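Journal club side-thread
Mid-discussion, someone asked how the predicted structure for our own chain would compare to the paper's figures. Pasting it here so we can look after the session.
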Amino acid sequence: MESTVKAIETDVLVIGAGPAGLGTAIALMRGAPEGSKPRVIVLDKGRNPGSHILSGAIVDPSGFDGLLTQEETAKLPVEARVSKESFRMISGPGRSMKVPWVPPLMHSRGYPVGSLTKIVSYLASIAEREGVELYTGYAVTELLEENGRICGARTGAKGIGKDGGHKENYLAPEEIRARVTVLAEGGCGILTERLADEKGLRGKRCQTYALAIKELVEVPAGKQTAGEVMHTFGYPLTDGTYGGGFVYHISETQVMAGYVCALDYRRPEIDPHLLFRRFKESSAVRRHIEGGKTVAYGAKTIPEGGYYSALHPYTPGCVIVGDAAGLLDSLRIKGVHIALQSAQAAAKAILAELKDGKGLETYPGLLHATRGWKEMKRVRNVRAAFRHGTFCGVMGAGMAWATFGLFPFWRLGGFEMPDSEELEPLKPGALEKESARGVPQNSPLSPDRLTGVFMSGTLHDEDQPCHLKIADAAKCGECREKYGAPCTRFCPAEVYRFEEDRLQIDFSNCLHCKTCKIKCPYGNVDWTFPQGGDGPRYTRM
C-alpha cells in the first residue's frame, strides 16, 4: 500500500452506479428522517453515469414503485412502451414460425422500452438532487477489512505507465472508509467474486452466464411501429445450446437488435458474434431492420443461473445488490426491477444499521420478501431444464407458470461446475464445418467486431499496464491445441488473437464484459481493473 493514500470518511459507500447502486443511494436519502440524512458516496469506473451500462431494455416498472414518485416514473427517458409483442421460433435463414401465444410470464405490454444508459443517467440526476455524492471515473480495486468486517474500499491509481512508473497525470489511490459498503458492480463483479470466495457466499449452484451482444440500428422513418417487440429462439444456435434473440422498436426510427448466447456451451468452435450476425441475416429479423444502418454496439455478460445460483447477499459491513448478487429472473431475462427492489430492501437494512449499529443481517429477509425474489423462486428450475433441451425447457417453463413454481419441487441437476469447465475438446474439422455455414459480408447492417468496438466509443489509455493478465503463457498454447483458442471467438471485441503462434492481447478493445474470465477453459485470464474512466462509453444502449 502506498504511503500517499488519502482517507475519506462516509456513512455509506456504493460501488457501481447502475440501477441497483443508484437505487440504493436514492432509497437511503429518501428513507432517512429529515435532518439526519446519511453521507452517501457512489463510485463508478465509467467515464459518465451509464457509460458501462447495457441492457435490452424492456423495463418492468414495478421496480420504481416506492422509489420514484409517479411524476418521476412518468418522465423516464423512453420514447415508447410495448404495444405489440411476439415470440418466434426461427428454424433457418429463411424459415420461422410465430408462436401462437406469448407465455404469460413473458408478457410486457405497456412496459417502457428504450435505452438503459439513458435511464441510469436519469436516476443519477435524481440521486444527486437528493444529496448523493456521485463520482465517476474511479475504479475501486480493493475492499478494506478490519476484524472480519468490511469497512470501505480503495480506488486504483491513475496515471501509471506501461513500465509501472508514474506519469505526469498520476493520481494516488484513495481510501474511502464507510460504516456500510454496497457492492453494485453488476454481473461477475471482480470485488464481489473475491468476497464471495473469501466469505463463502456462493449459492447452491455455480453461477452460469450468458453473453449478450446488442446493436442500435437506425431505420427509415414510416416503415416500423414504435413499441413493437419480438423475441426469438432456435436458429442460428444448434445442438441444444441455449440462447435467443430480440428486436425492440424503441422509436419510429430506431431498433435495438440483440442476441444472447449462454456460456455453458460445450462446442469450442461457437462464435457468439458470428451467431448474432447470422441472426440479423434471417428473414424474421431482417424485415425489422431492412434499409437501416447500425450506429451503436455493445456487449455484456448476464448472470442467468437464477434462484439457486444467487449469492448470500450479506457479510458484516457489506451488502450485495442487483446483478452482482445474481438477482435475475432467468425465464424473462429481466433484472432491472429486481435490482431496484433489492436496492430498497438494502436501504432499509442500512438505515437500521446506521441508527442502532445492527440491521444489515435483516437484508436477506427483506430481499426474500420482495416480489422480484418470489419471481426468481417461481422459475428456479427453468434455466436448468433447458440443459436437457428446448422441449424440456419449455415444459419446465410451463410447469413453473401453471404450478406457481411448486413443481418440480426438487432442485434439478445442472451447473455443478462453472462455465469455463463445460468445453469439450475441439473435434477435427469443426472450425471448417462452422465456417462453411457462412459468414455474412460486412455491411452497414452487419459490421465486423472492430467496427462495433469503434461504435461502442471504447477508449483505453494504451500507456498503462494491460489489465488482462495471463497467468501462464504456456497454457495458451495448450488451449490452442486442445480447444482451438476459443478466446479468439468468444470475445465480442477481438481482444485476443494469435500471431506467429503467440497470443496477442489488444486490451484497448476491451468492452469489460468479462467473458474471457468466465469462459477461458484453463481459468488463465485474470481480469483486473484498467484506470478509471477507461472502457466503453455507451450513450444510448
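Post-session note: The two ends are 37 Å apart (CA to CA).
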